[in-house]
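Dissemination and training. As part of the outreach component of the grant, students in the summer workshop were shown how a complex can be specified as a set of sequence lines and then modelled as a single object. The example used during the hands-on session is reproduced here so that future cohorts can follow it. Participants entered these lines:
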Amino acid sequence: MLRDRFDRLCILGLVLVAGALVALLVTAGPSAGRQNDGGVERRVEQEMLAQARVAFLERHYGTVVSMRDRGELQSALLKLEELERQLPGEPHGALLRGEILHRMGLVDRSISSLALAVRGNGDYIDPASPLNQRDLIASVAGQAVPLLRDRLRGQPDDRQAVAVLKDAYYLQSRLAGGCE
Amino acid sequence: MQRFGPLTRYLSEKVGVNFEAVPVDTQDFEGRFKAGEFTFTHTNSILYVMLKHDYDLQLIAAEKRGQFGPRTAGAIVVRRDSPIKSLQDLKGKRMIFGPQMAPTGYMAQYDLMLKAGLDPERDLAFSTIPQGSFKHEKLIYGVYLGAFDAAAAPVLDLETMTREGKIAADDFRILAQSEIIPYCTFGAAKTTDAALVEKFRKALLELTPETTVEIDGERRKVLGAAWVDGFEALRDQDYDPVRAMAKRTNMPPYQVY
Amino acid sequence: MSWPRFDLNFWMVVAAGFTMGLFGVLLAVWGNPDNSGICVSCFMENSAGALGLHANPRMQYLRPELIGFVLGAALCAAVGREFRSRGGSVPLARLAAGVFLIVGCAIFIGCPIKLFLRFTAGDLSAAAGVVGLLGGVWLGLQGLARGVDLGRAQNERGGTGWLVPAGAVILLGFLVVPPAFVAFSTRGSAAQHAPWLASLGVGLLLGALAQRSRFCITGSVRDTLLMGTRTPLIWGLAAFVLAAVGVNLATGQFRLALYGQPGAHLEHLWSFLGMFLVGWLSVLVGGCPFRQLVKAGEGDADAGLVVVGMLIGGGLVQSWGIAATAAGVPLVGKAVLLVGLAFVLGASLLFRIRSAHP
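and obtained this result:
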């Protein structure tokens, strides 16, 4: 390979560049390479966002949770209707609705809400998350599947039952894990 | 009939029969049904129970609306700042009800009061039913504006009015809520051809929010026009709570004079 | 039934298949997502996310397995004097093929390795994917028989074949000493991973075994269709299945069911089409996604381009919402899959060597 001066110059250049790179990385301090604006490390930022989200949800949905815990289930549902206008599409509303509907004995209605919640935020089935609701979701899905299968046996063309059963299977699949 | 025009047209097209929608007052329903005026019916759950009991009406499907889907409930509400804290506190108060044949505007609340040991005929200082249309909204506003101490409010109306911003969830307190019972229901006369009934049911169950139909030169969403989220097949035993309520409240078809 | 020759090559293939099946399940037991102990497409999506090619915070992790596959193959090829820098055959088409390989995998939710890992864990929803893969490989072979040919890699002057292994070394550096711009999910499936040393070790081992034996899932299917049971590759696949089923049963991971399986959806038609596309493309480019990594490791720059395409695909399927989830296949995903089928059909037309006489 080293036939002539040009080759040798290229090799020398490579060695120098490699050395400069090593020297740069070795001599760089621990804070070097971070964002220029002095921002926090990405992992810390993600953790901050997660905690901020939990605080946000507690602030906005705290009333609903209190009503639910006092047994004022219908009032809690009405409050959720109101919050839906302020926070349209927020999965936490769907989660709370699903839980309350389950408490009211409306398993099939509960499933649809819970599936909507999990589609919007996978934290609800993440065991490591403070928003984890695996037990609730597993319980409701477990009740819903035989109920809906039974309904479809009697009425196979009930599209709504098919859709809700799909939601139940979706929740069971998410609970089982695997890639998202 | 603006509401049900598109649904009627859709059913006509799907079933292959020219349906005509006929609006009927609740108190006239049974008489006209008995006279054989209708093949298919769309009624509240108490009328379904009556017609099933007296004329063996066939159940087709229940209408879905609101967060309970094909079901709903009745509640007794007071204003948030009301001194009334329990059903017992309703004694000597003024209360407004929905129409007597409204399962979740009258019967459900009457039943709640009976269960609490109250006699709605004697224990209230005053009770009434609003006149005209939008009765359910009127009784909710009646409490909100202080004209009445308590209202027999259908939960569906509370939900709809909250969603539309007409009231705030915090404006009211729910003193009690009834069992969840089926909502409006389609039925068919006993003698109707079974295949026709099945086609009718299938057509209802196949409806999606995107289904449209052309009516009066305009393309309209069938469910949206009817203020309905869809239809669901229920079983006759799903109406047993309505029957039990009707028996307890001495309502038709179990009334004893 | 015809028997293969029970020579060293045969046993190498069986060892590669067995090891892949064994560790494919064990990696899930050790922390990788369920039924995804090894999944090249999922890992590509995770790695693309780690490198900033998409912003899904639940899918960002530099998977050591991928690095191991490339470096294991490179080291084994170098030791066995099989490392040859080669390439130059329809590069852009190969890049696009890499993208569509990942699209097909993302629609199924898994590469051909994960297809069989899911199947051997009792996931009946993978059956449609198996049929799709068989169909795609078969159709690809029909194309080859009729002259569809992307051309052979030519020996290259210089060493472009080192670029992908060098890239893997850099990524290894990023893994060991993560710079700030490499993301690591703290939630979601990308946060589920086996200890990185174990993952890397398994990757190196499998990369080396696969380089030496030429084992590949779609290659097994392809050679079986061509040669029947005489080919050692089908025995390698059988060893894979045996090992995977055994470990799944032993670790309680086996659950025979259609519903409620991890990382699976119920749109069987699209599972079929996803793997159909993967099977067909794999025949055209000379191997499944895993095989592309191994070939790239041994200096094949054409395979290297497919690998780059796969990484781009990993970013796109997340950014554009193409990837299927347990909820089903999104409309965009279906459309892009159809575009992928159009691509492979177009390639079959354009790259067909037509004989002068009919």
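The first helix of chain A runs from residue 5 to 27. Students were then asked to discuss how this feature might be tested experimentally.
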